[in-house]
Design goal:
Layout (H helix, E strand, L loop, with lengths): L7 E2 L5 E4 L5 E6 H11 L6 E4 L4 E6 L13 E3 L4 E4 L11 E4 L10 H12 L8
Antiparallel strand pairs: 1-2, 2-7, 3-5, 3-6, 4-5, 4-8
Helix pairs in contact: 1-2
Length: 129
């Protein structure tokens, strides 16, 4: 399966793709995402890296981010867009796939992602205020 990348083309071969169709996304700061990826131990779907934003975007099932309130992270669904690189771009410079949907599942399980991020943050930082 591949991520739906139909959207508006931008400079640098990126495509702005609306969330909420084939997938939602969770934007996670790099410092949290690196630890979450270690805990996921390969049990994740496609992940986009945006070095300029210092963030990773985990693709999750559509409409699954409702009620997401994890500190430091941002749920992206309808009315949100993600800059998606070509499926073959797996290194920088610029936005690239850490894990391309060409090489595995598109979605990370939303509940599992939430659990590992909350474990990374610790009990005092689980829910955004």
């Amino acid at each position: 399966m591949t991520a739906d990348t139909s959207g508006m083309e931008t400079a640098g071969d990126l495509t702005l793709v609306p969330c909420g169709g084939r997938w939602d996304a969770v934007k996670v700061p790099r410092w949290i995402a690196v630890q979450a990826l270690k805990q996921l131990k390969g049990k994740h779907g496609a992940v986009i890296v945006d070095p300029r934003e210092r963030a990773l975007y985990f693709l999750v099932p559509p409409q699954s981010t409702s009620g997401w309130t994890v500190q430091y992270t941002s749920p992206l669904s309808t009315a949100s867009y993600v800059a998606v690189p070509p499926s073959s771009k797996e290194s920088g410079p610029g936005v690239y796939w850490l894990t391309s949907p060409v090489h595995g599942p598109v979605h990370t399980r939303t509940g599992l992602l939430r659990v590992v991020i909350e474990e990374t943050l610790g009990p005092q930082m689980k829910v955004a205020l």
